[in-house]
Amino acid sequence: MKKSTLSRRDLLYSLAATGASVASLKALALVPEVNPQAGGSNSVSRHISLGAQTNAWPIDPNRFDSFTAALGEVRDTGYAGFETGFANLRSQSNSLPQARKQIEATGLSFIGVHIFLPEYDATTKIAPRQLYEPVAQAGAALGAERLIFSGSPAVNEDEIKRKATALNHAGEFAGKLGLKVAYHNHWPEFENNGKEIEALYAATDPRLVWFLLDAGHAYRTGVDLPDFVRRHYQRLTAIHFRDYRNQVQVPLGQGTLPLAEIAAVLKKANWTGWAMNEEEREDGSKQGLAVIRPAFQALKGVFSA
């Protein structure tokens, strides 16, 4: 995943690192607070809804119509909701009410806005407050349900404590806007037998911080995913599913990820959350419906009641 990760990082860095863009984001703190409505209308089972991350599409962050076009394909495929990177919303900083209407017109639930950066605050290992607070304000105004964080690895107890404290603070702030904070892992959090991710679960406040498990990233480290989900499902607000065969990503359902086993654990636990597909590629290609359609069928197949 390293090549595609760098590609996304370059895109998001262009937003976060420029003074004008950050100033624009700060201005979003002036928008009214909005409590988003939860849920999706096309749940496959009584508890679980299916969603997609939009990074499978070639979205131009300066053209909102390219974003809404992708949402149309998400909807038409059959998904009930979507998650997107915050860079895809930046062009609407001065027209949030109109943008919300366009999003709502798709009929999709806005699962969450994701902050992914090329580098993070050196102390907290997540996005700095001066970035995530206005992003949360904008996300709430647009109808998002979650503020999703990625982060850099915390390698010792002090770093984990600072990272957990920062996530708790973010959860408290976002909660006032009606948003859940969810931490999204990559592979480093699951290395060394999941040392960091287990520590973050233990150190964060369950009233303030949830988790978005990226099952594909975790799977590549050799973790027993069904067991991990069995032990931690109560803190999972959503799961990213991506599949691999011989360490190369393939459309969901065509690799060796134990998708059916994970689904069985979740259904047995009566888990309520979002099962999401994330189809990004190591070469940075954006394959859209070619990979999204088979992935949807794979999710629908294992989560059907």
Structure report:
The protein has a single domain (2-30, 42-303), classed as Divalent-metal-dependent TIM barrel enzymes (TIM Barrel, Alpha-Beta Barrel). Helices cover 43% and strands 16% of the residues. It contains eleven helices and ten strands. The chain has 305 residues and is of the alpha/beta class. Helix 9 (225-232) runs parallel beside helix 10 (259-268).
What is the residue-mean pLDDT, rounded to a whole number?
Answer: 87
- Give me the oligomer status: single chain
Counting DSSP H or I runs of 4 or more residues, the number of helices is 11
Structural class: alpha/beta
CATH class: Alpha Beta
Largest sheet: 8 strands, parallel, barrel
Total separate domains: 1
In short:
With 305 residues, the protein is an alpha/beta fold.
Based on the model shown, name its key terms:
single chain, eight-stranded parallel β-barrel, two-stranded antiparallel ribbon, 11 helices, TIM Barrel, alpha/beta
Describe the protein's topology:
Blueprint: H1 2-16, H2 19-27, E1 48-53, H3 64-77, E2 81-85, H4 96-105, E3 109-115, H5 129-142, E4 146-149, H6 157-175, E5 180-184, H7 191-203, E6 209-214, H8 215-219, H9 225-232, E7 236-241, E8 243-245, E9 248-250, H10 259-268, E10 273-277, H11 289-303
Parallel strand pairs: 1-2, 1-10, 2-3, 3-4, 4-5, 5-6, 6-7, 7-10
Antiparallel strand pairs: 8-9
